[in-house]
């Protein structure tokens, strides 16, 4: 059996690929076709441990390239498609929304069209068992007030940034393809993830790498915005469970019941670093915290009600925030080379040196 994963060289997609192939039993033996455009956020070095592993076929390409996607579907006959591919950084969407519209909306549309055509030609169990799992975010629901109940799956969509608006549009398209064409889709809306291989433009990895480099730790506004954090491997286990047992057409919110204000996150990262790799001058890393101008339109609070996925699919996160964050900081301390290659841009050469052969073998564009 085969799965097509899009965006599998990004933070969550790559963690999903690594986790999937590490599963015992039949799941770990399935082949993953990994279609990724390798934007700045795609890092094939994250997948270097899979080099030479026949279960992982990397293809550099765009979800918006309908011909390529149709060819991959026809050639590999996947039983499911998992769509991680997206532009994902809110600050970048504020500076330049166009790529977000192109990939998250237009790209998802082309992917849906290719998948609809492929699925339409399937028969029997191949058709009834097929699934498209669309990976989305809690940010589509907008911002909560301090006393508001957490987002459920029926919360109204009120996206506030170009990023969240583009993800909301993609969710609507996915929903419409189920409603109109019967395409067996599953949608997950997850809270903020953290963990290994996270690109250091997002809050937690940025704070870790800046702290270690002796740079300021920029906290936007008053630092009291609240996010709901989930360890990335818990997100991966939720996706596996939704793929296995989710009902077509249903939406599942994924989260760890773990709301924290940003400043508390930064303070906790600093305290872990004080313990695990103290500053040479004996000062606390928190001395590097610097309050900076707020993000325009900054959402104040996100919180996920993960009751449905727990009740209906029996999923719960395995990590607490304390264990997950400690593992994350330890991972960054143990992997300075991965961080250095991201910072120098050297990771972008990796595809040439390490993946050209596999991509060519898969018939992909070099
Ligand atoms: P990421 O930015 O780290 O990775 C995105 C990946 O998609 C990259 O490898 C990139 O090269 C690839 N990509 C971009 N445009 C593409 C295109 N047109 N065709 C093919 N590949 C393309 O993002 P992430 O944090 O791994 O997020 C993955 C998904 O999960 C996204 O859809 C995001 O909206 C969603 N999500 C993220 C979080 C989070 O906290 N990071 C939380 C909830 C949901
Ligand atoms: P981020 O990791 O960009 O995720 P998102 O905006 O999708 O939630 O940011 C998480 C929170 O941290 C958000 O409230 C913005 C804040 N933040 C900072 O205070 N400083 C920073 O340098 C960054 C990148 C984010």
| Separate helix tally | 13
Bound molecules: nicotinamide-adenine-dinucleotide, thymidine-5'-diphosphate
| Spatial order of the strands forming the largest sheet | 3-2-1-4-5-6-10
Q: Quaternary state, please?
A: single chain
Residue-averaged pLDDT, rounded?
Answer: 95
Query: How many distinct beta strands?
Result: 12
What would you say this structure looks like, in words?
- With 366 residues, the protein is α/β, with parallel strands linked by helices.
- It has a domain of 243 residues: Rossmann fold (3-Layer(aba) Sandwich).
- The protein has 13 helices and twelve strands.
- The strands form three sheets. The protein has a seven-stranded parallel sheet with strand order 3-2-1-4-5-6-10, with helices on both faces. A three-stranded mixed sheet has the order 7-9-11.
- The radius of gyration is 20 Å and the shape is globular.
- The two termini are 26 Å apart.
- The C terminus is likely disordered.
- Bound molecules: nicotinamide-adenine-dinucleotide and thymidine-5'-diphosphate (TYD).
- Thymidine-5'-diphosphate (TYD) binds next to helix 7 and strand 8.
